[in-house]
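PT: before anyone asks, these are the final sequences, not the draft ones from last week. 844 residues across everything. Please model them as a single complex and drop the result in this thread when it's through.
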Amino acid sequence: MATATKPTKKRGRKGRTAAPEDTLPVVDDAPPPGESAGEGSATAGPKAVRRRATAQALAAGQRDISVSEFFAKNRHLLGFDSPRKALLTSVKEAVDNSLDACEEAGILPEIWVRIEQVGESGTRYRMSVQDNGPGIVRKQIPLIFGKLLYGSKFHRLRMSRGQQGIGISAAGMYGVLTTGKPVKIVSKIDRKHPAHYYELRIDTKTNQPEILNGKGEGVDIPPGKGGDELMRKHSIEWVAANDRGEPIEHGTRVTIEMEAKFQRGRGSVEEYLEQTAISNPHARIHFGGPDGQDRVLERASDDLPPEPKEIKPHPYGVELGRLVTMLQEQPKLTLAQFLTQSFSRVSSGTARKICDTAKLSSRVTTGKLGRGEADALYKAIQETRIPPPATDCIVPIGEQRLLAGLRQVVPGEFFTAATRPP
Amino acid sequence: MATATKPTKKRGRKGRTAAPEDTLPVVDDAPPPGESAGEGSATAGPKAVRRRATAQALAAGQRDISVSEFFAKNRHLLGFDSPRKALLTSVKEAVDNSLDACEEAGILPEIWVRIEQVGESGTRYRMSVQDNGPGIVRKQIPLIFGKLLYGSKFHRLRMSRGQQGIGISAAGMYGVLTTGKPVKIVSKIDRKHPAHYYELRIDTKTNQPEILNGKGEGVDIPPGKGGDELMRKHSIEWVAANDRGEPIEHGTRVTIEMEAKFQRGRGSVEEYLEQTAISNPHARIHFGGPDGQDRVLERASDDLPPEPKEIKPHPYGVELGRLVTMLQEQPKLTLAQFLTQSFSRVSSGTARKICDTAKLSSRVTTGKLGRGEADALYKAIQETRIPPPATDCIVPIGEQRLLAGLRQVVPGEFFTAATRPP
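LR: through. Structure below.
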C-alpha cells in the first residue's frame, strides 16, 4: 500500500473488496502467538515504526477522574453553556429546590429571587434565592450545596422538579470556577433554633465541600437580637419578614456570584419566573433585577397541590440489567414474593402468570435464579398483560390552578385551560 | 388573592405592580425572627396549610448518588440515546481507544470491528473491537472497562481521540443494563507474557468493576499451545494473526452485548469507520457486519502521524477559579516562578509585565496571595499581551495524509485536500 501515498490518480474501490476471513477464534493454520519466530515484541505486528510507550508506561498515567472535574470540563451537559444560560440555570435549580422543599413540607411557597450586578464589567452577577421552606439541617447543608450527585430525589419514583442531586451544587461550582467566590447559604429550620450560615466551595479534585467560614464549621446565628447583630456584622442577607410584615421563620437562602449575562425578554430569568408562577399558582415569587425594577408575582391560589405519591417501578419499565440487579439485592424471597413486592401493579395472579410464562416455579428462591432464568423472566414480563402504573405519583397542575396562574400573570380578556388524564 | 381562583374575568396586571422592598438585610422595622408573637413554627409563614415533612425528615432521605447511577439514568448525555446510536457510540469509543493506544505506543494500528446479531429479535447485537495496540496491564483492565471516570487522558493538555475516561466503560454499562451480559476483555502486552481475560460488569451502585470470571480475579492465558486450548475451551475470541499471516502479538479486544439497532448508510457504523479510515490513513480497519459482508479499509500510509506534545495551560484559557486553585496548589513559589512554570508562553519578561499590571511584587510568595490579589492577577493576565499557545499539542492530519486516506476510501477521479495552520 506504500504506493498509495504517491500523488497519482487512482480509480476504483480498492478498499472495498471483501477480505479473507481473519483467524477468529484461534485456529491452527495461523501462527499462534508465542510460536511465531522472528522479531521481538517491540517491533511485532505489521511494520511497527517506533515504540513510544509500553503498556506499563501507559498504565502509570491512569487515574480516577472526579465527577466535579468531569462536569467542570463538561459544564454544557448541565446547562452552563453560556453566561446567559448559566444564570438562568442557576436560578432555575434554586427555585426548583425551593418549590420542592415547600411542597414536601406542606408550606405555601414564598420565594425571593434577586440578581445584582457586581463591578462595572457587566459580566459578573450575584444571584440569590430565598424561600420560606422547611430549611435544611446543619450537617446536610455543605453536602447539598458543595458536592455533585448528592440528594434525596434521585432514587425516588415520584414527581419532583429537581431530580438528580446535581443542579444547585453545579451552579455553585460554576460560580466558584468563574469568580473564585464561595457559595453562601443561610438556612433556618424554625424560629427557636439558630440559623446556620455557610460559605463554601466545592473542591473539584475530590467532589467534597470545603467550608471557608467559622474555621471550617460554618457559623451559627442565634435567634433574637444577638443573631440580628451577627448578621449585620457579617453582611449576611436574609429576608426576615415579607412585604406584608409576616415573619419568615424558616427557609433557605443561597447566594452565588458568577460570570453571567443578564437580559430581559425571551430566555430570561424573568420569563422563567413568570412561567413558574403560571404553573405554580400556589407560589408567591418576588423578583429583583439588577436594573432595580422589583416585581411580585402574586399567589393566585391558597391551595397546595395534592402531594404526589412515591411508587414502585412498573415491570414494563425495568431493563433486563436492572432486573438482574434487583434479583441479586433480594436473594431470599420466593419469585412470587419478589414480583408482588418489588413492582407496582403485580397481583399474586399476575405474578403466577409471569412465572408460568417463564416456565419458573413461583416458589423458587430469587437467589437461585441464574442469568438464563432472569432472561426468561424478563421476556415473560413483556408478554404478560399488566395494568398501567398508578398515576398518583404525578400531579398535573389541573385546569383550575392553571387558569388561576394564567390570570395572575398574563394580561388578557379570555382565559381557558385544558388538561388530560395522566 | 383567594378570589382569583373563582372563574371570573379579570383585567390588568395585578402581579406586575412594583412591590415595596422586602426587608433585606434584617432591618428593625420588620419583626425579627424569634421575636414575633403568635403562631408556632409549624404554621408560620404565609398561611401554611399542613406540615408534611420537617427538615429532619427530609434530611433522612439525602444520600450520595453514584456517578454510574447518574449516567445509567442520563445515558443520552454520553451518546446512548437510542439503540442505533448506542451501537455507533460503543464502536466509536472502542476504536478511539485503539487508535490512541497505538499512537502512544508508536504502532501502526490494525483494528477489527465485528458486529453480530444475537437471537432472532433483531434488537440485540454483540460488538467486538480488537486492536494490535500495546495492550493493557492486568490490574488496569477492570478499571478501564468497569468504572466510569477513570483514565489517563483527562488531565492532559494534548490531542487525543478519547478524552474523558467515560466512553468505553459507559458502553459496557449500557450493555450490562440492557442485556445483563458482562463485558469481555482480552488483553496481551507481548508474546512472552500471558494474556488476561476478564468478564466483568460495572456495579452501578458503587461505580466499581465486578469481575465475574476466575473467582473474581480474571483468567490468565499462557502463551503457546496451552493458551490456545484454554481459549478454545472458553470460546474466547482473539484474532491471532491477520489475513496476511502476520501474528498479532499484543493488543486488546473488547466484546459488549447490547440492545442495539444495526443499519447501513448514514449514521451507521460502516460510515463512521470509512470516515475514520480517511482521517487515519495509517490505520488498517477490518469490518464484519451481521449480514456477513466483510470489508478491509486498507492502510494508505505507513507513516505514523507525528506525536502530539503535552503542553501547559495558556494563561488566557485559565478561569479565575482555576487560577485560585493553582495558586493554592503551589504555595511556595515566587509569583514570577509560578507564572513561568505553570503556564506556557510566559517568559520572565511577560511574568514581570503581569506582576506590574497587577501591582504585585514578582517575588511575593504564592501562598500569601489572597482572593483580592488573585483577582488582580487574573485581570492583569487578560490585559497583558501573551503569544498564542504552541501548536505542537495538536497534529492536523495534513494534506498528504488526508489525500491518501480519501483515495483509499472514496471512489473518484480527482482528489484534493487543503489544510490550514492550527
